[in-house]
Amino acid sequence: MNIEFLKGFVETVRTKSIAKASENLHISHTALSKQLRSLEKHFDVQLFIRSSQGVELTEAGKVLYDSSTILFDQLASIKNQLEPYKVWHRIRMAAVPDIAARYLMPALPKLQEQGHEVELLYRQSTKEVYKLLLNGEVDLIVAERISMHPSIWIEDLNQEPLYVVMSKENPLSGQPMVTLTELSNQPLVLYTEGCTIRAKLTELFATMERPMHIKTEVDFSEVILGYVGNGDGVTVLPEASIIPFSDRLVFVPLHHPEAQRTISIFSRNRTKGQKIRRFIS
């Protein structure tokens, strides 16, 4: 007997309609009718009294319904008890490109050695990455920490300092660090609204009551570094984005206690998240 047939039976009882139940289960009316007849044939009983108004349970149907609800409760309990022992052969993870390169890519060989089939999704904005998790499209994300619903498990991985990126010709390029006051006098090349680094800078400048002069807004880090490399402004990037892009660029720490971002791992399933966390450093 197929357990899915019992699910169809329970849904039909709940809705008192084969048509409504089939719609809720995303199967055809004919397919569900066949499932119900299969159950009746299997148990050699009549489960429903059918009419133009819908369906009503027979006495035998009531017995099967009560037993089915108990069965599904037991199956749910078994599933919960086995949760810590799950292997999770297939794992879907997501991050923006720089975070994926720093934290997820090195973990792939370790996960594959354990028999996991890993699918890594990239998105250009952190907001899009969060959306993938909240919509249940991925099992886990690595992203900048933000407040999440209590149902989302979160664990911090690292704190990354922020760097001011500028051309070698910039007067600040020879300094060991750059202050917010100094940065406020520079033309900024930043991501468009919605970028977490931009939001952090906006917060820092507002706290110190300093102006922030945004000269250019772009969507990709490669474009930002192109502008900066040509001397058209400076930008601020996290540690994970600091790569040898050009011999014309200089990366100088932004001097402020809050000039950093916290990178965290997020999952809708605490046990699964903790299991995968062991492979991410």
Automatic annotation (TrEMBL):
Highest taxon of the lineage: Bacteria
Domain named HTH lysR-type is located at: 1-58
InterPro entries documented for this protein: HTH-type_LysR_regulators, LysR_HTH_N, LysR_subst-bd, WH-like_DNA-bd_sf, WH_DNA-bd_sf
Looking up Pfam families in the UniProt record yields: HTH_1 (PF00126), LysR_substrate (PF03466)
UniProt GO MF annotations: DNA binding; DNA-binding transcription factor activity
Q: Which UniProt keywords apply?
A: DNA-binding, Transcription, Transcription regulation
Q: Per its UniProt record, what PANTHER family does this chain match?
A: HTH-TYPE TRANSCRIPTIONAL REGULATOR YBHD, NITROGEN ASSIMILATION TRANSCRIPTIONAL ACTIVATOR-RELATED
Q: Which family does it belong to?
A: Belongs to the LysR transcriptional regulatory family.
Its name, as the record gives it, is LysR family transcriptional regulator
| UniProt organism field | Paenibacillus wynnii
